[in-house]
Amino acid sequence: MSNSFGKLFRITTFGESHGVGIGVIIDGCPAGLAVTADTIQTALDRRRPGQSDLTTPRSEADKVEILSGLFEGKTTGTPISLLIRNQDQASHDYAHVEHAYRPSHADYTYDMKYGRRDYRGGGRSSARETAARVAAGAVAAQLLAHYGIVAQSYVSQVGAVAVPVGYEQLDLNLIESNAVRCPDPATAERMMSLIRQTRDRQDTVGGIVTGVVRGVPAGLGEPVFDKLHAELGKAMLSINAVKGFEYGSGFAGTLLFGSEHNDAFYTDEAGAVRTRTNHSGGIQGGISNGQDIYFQVAFKPVATILQPQTTINDQGEEITLAGKGRHDPCVLPRAVPIVDAMTNLVLADMLLRSRANKV
Amino acid sequence: MSNSFGKLFRITTFGESHGVGIGVIIDGCPAGLAVTADTIQTALDRRRPGQSDLTTPRSEADKVEILSGLFEGKTTGTPISLLIRNQDQASHDYAHVEHAYRPSHADYTYDMKYGRRDYRGGGRSSARETAARVAAGAVAAQLLAHYGIVAQSYVSQVGAVAVPVGYEQLDLNLIESNAVRCPDPATAERMMSLIRQTRDRQDTVGGIVTGVVRGVPAGLGEPVFDKLHAELGKAMLSINAVKGFEYGSGFAGTLLFGSEHNDAFYTDEAGAVRTRTNHSGGIQGGISNGQDIYFQVAFKPVATILQPQTTINDQGEEITLAGKGRHDPCVLPRAVPIVDAMTNLVLADMLLRSRANKV
Amino acid sequence: MSNSFGKLFRITTFGESHGVGIGVIIDGCPAGLAVTADTIQTALDRRRPGQSDLTTPRSEADKVEILSGLFEGKTTGTPISLLIRNQDQASHDYAHVEHAYRPSHADYTYDMKYGRRDYRGGGRSSARETAARVAAGAVAAQLLAHYGIVAQSYVSQVGAVAVPVGYEQLDLNLIESNAVRCPDPATAERMMSLIRQTRDRQDTVGGIVTGVVRGVPAGLGEPVFDKLHAELGKAMLSINAVKGFEYGSGFAGTLLFGSEHNDAFYTDEAGAVRTRTNHSGGIQGGISNGQDIYFQVAFKPVATILQPQTTINDQGEEITLAGKGRHDPCVLPRAVPIVDAMTNLVLADMLLRSRANKV
Amino acid sequence: MSNSFGKLFRITTFGESHGVGIGVIIDGCPAGLAVTADTIQTALDRRRPGQSDLTTPRSEADKVEILSGLFEGKTTGTPISLLIRNQDQASHDYAHVEHAYRPSHADYTYDMKYGRRDYRGGGRSSARETAARVAAGAVAAQLLAHYGIVAQSYVSQVGAVAVPVGYEQLDLNLIESNAVRCPDPATAERMMSLIRQTRDRQDTVGGIVTGVVRGVPAGLGEPVFDKLHAELGKAMLSINAVKGFEYGSGFAGTLLFGSEHNDAFYTDEAGAVRTRTNHSGGIQGGISNGQDIYFQVAFKPVATILQPQTTINDQGEEITLAGKGRHDPCVLPRAVPIVDAMTNLVLADMLLRSRANKV
Question: Which residues take part in binding FMN (chains A, B, C, D) (predicted)?
Answer without folding.
Answer: 124-126, 240-241, 285, 300-304, 326
